[in-house]
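<purpose> Linking amino acid order to shape
<body> The protein record starts here
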Amino acid sequence: MRRVIINFMYPENLFNMKEGFEELLGVFNLEPSILRLVPNYQSACFNILNNIFKMSHQADVMLPSIYELMLQTNFTEFLWTLYQVQNENLYLYQRDDSSITHKISEVCSYIHTNYSKPLSLESLARTFFISSCYLSRQFKQVTGFRLTEYIQNVRIINAQFLLASTEESVSSIAMSCGFTSFSQFNRVFHQKANCSPTEYRRSHGHSHWV
């Protein structure tokens, strides 16, 4: 069984199609917030994601405006596919994953909400009443990421969004995304994005986000 975790962002005005996008995005308000799809629906979703992945390798040879448009179009199709099958979510009827999957989902949601605050394995373990060793092991098993790696990914994704869509200073973005020093932010950003924050802003400024 494969689990897929996707981070994405939309502008606040939802491309001036707020009502439609809010309806599509409502699938992420499911309780629990986990989708388990039958094989044919899995294939449909993975085909769209594979198309997006392949497109990402063509970004350098496409006009930026066309690349952004096609990326947005494909991801909207992905949302539409999930929206269509949400009532056939097998997870609602097969609750054999035990409470730890629910707990890890809660931890992920907490990280996305509180990434600007100090976060660590120990503090999250205390917050969710789990031993740090158990949380570390189960988080990796459920998500495929080490906990610290996941926190850094969330922070960098939010930093990229702010770099591309605001005029906020790089140092201010670093602090608002939970990094304790500018040097740490630069180092982690370069590891994740293969460029500096300034270079990223120069090439992605005012772009649309998915």
